[in-house]
Design a protein that fits this description.
The chain has about 110 residues and is α+β, with helices and mostly antiparallel strands. The protein has a single domain, classed as 2-Layer Sandwich (GMP Synthetase, Chain A, domain 3), CATH 3.30.300.180. About 50% of the residues lie in helices and about 15% in strands. The chain contains four helices and three strands; from the N terminus they run αααββαβ. The protein has a three-stranded mixed β-sheet with strand order 1-2-3. Helix 2 crosses helix 4. The protein is elongated and about 70 Å long. The N and C termini lie far apart (about 55 Å).
């Protein structure tokens, strides 16, 4: 039986990583993490001072908010925020945002 000889040619991580992520079904996880990291840029400084994107669960972005007042305001802004989010990640990755109340000085620390 002949074995296929593996190429000894080195490939860059940038060439290999997308195929590995696809094979492991981790593309969406990586894309979601990108959104969590970019949240302050997506929403702007004012909102970022009072919020922190926590994770993507299913197709819902979970955002921690520092006060009930901001949670109410962001609920009204949700359609606009979803449009901004859609510009940053692959289509269909996030369809909703869930705001949860958080507290303490660690809200915006990374």
């Amino acid at each position: 039986m002949l074995r296929r000889r593996k190429s000894r040619k080195f490939r860059s991580l940038g060439d290999v990583l997308p195929r590995v992520l696809k094979r492991l079904h981790l593309e969406k996880v990586v894309e979601a993490q990108k959104l969590v990291r970019l949240w302050p840029e997506v929403v702007g400084d004012k909102i970022a001072q009072h919020t922190r994107a926590l994770s993507v669960e299913g197709k819902t972005l979970v955002v921690v908010v520092d006060s009930p007042g901001w949670m109410t305001q962001l609920t009204y802004l949700k359609p606009q925020l979803l449009k901004k989010v859609a510009r940053q990640v692959k289509r269909g990755l996030v369809k909703d945002i869930r705001f949860v109340l958080g507290s303490g000085p660690t809200l915006n620390s990374t």
